[in-house]
Amino acid sequence: EVQLVESGGGLVQAGGSLRLSCAASGFPFDDYAIGWFRQAPGKEREGVSCNRHSDGSTYYADSVKGRFTISSDNAKNTVYLQMNSLKPEDTAVYYCVAPLPRCSGALDAYGKIFGSWGQGTQVTVSS
After folding, report:
1. Per-residue pLDDT tens for 14-26?
2. Contact by Cβ (8 Å): 68, 62
3. What is the pLDDT of residue 60?
4. Which of 23, 13, 14, 19 has the alpha carbon at shortest distance from 119?
5. Cis peptide before 99 (omega within 30 of 0)
6. Per-residue model confidence as pLDDT tens digits over 81-123
7. What digits encode the pLDDT tens for the residues 26-55?
8. What is the DSSP string of the chain?
């Protein structure tokens, strides 16, 4: 059974930073991609970033490129999302989704078809 447990959300002022963690289990961590999605009230779910350790592929949505960094610790089966220069528009519930077949710009589509979702962690950025 796939289990994904997110942590690290919170309240931060604009310009601040947070690091989200996703502890994964129930599938071969190295072989699949793991994605981060977010959903703000009244908005569609957005694929934010993903990576796959086996081929080193990564992807960032344009809205977070240059500010967010995804990384993974295979020894801990954990994926991290370092979020810097946070903006009020980053406010959302952030979800970890896995396993995904690959990491690419088709992340939004993959999230609708594949993977299990964690419970989410709230990120609130105040102006």
Report:
1. 999 999 999 999 9
2. no
3. 98
4. 23
5. yes
6. 999 999 999 999 999 999 999 999 999 999 889 989 999 999 9
7. 999 989 999 999 999 999 999 999 999 889
8. --EEEEE--EEEETT--EEEEEEEESS-GGGSEEEEEEE-TTS--EEEEEEETTTTEEEE-TTTTTTEEEEEETTTTEEEEEE-S--GGG-EEEEEEEEES--STTHHHHHHHS-EE---EEEEEE-
Residues 6 or more apart in contact with residue 17 via CB below 8 angstroms? 82, 83, 84, 85, 86
Give the pair of three-digit tokens for residue 57: 């592929």
Both tokens of residue 81?
């999302």
What the block records as the tokens of 20 is 């989200």
CB-based burial label for 94 (10 Å; 0-12, 13-18, 19+): buried
Q: Which two tokens stand for residue 31?
A: 């072989």
Kindly state the tokens that stand for 121. 């962690």
Q: Which residue has the tokens 């980053």?
A: 90
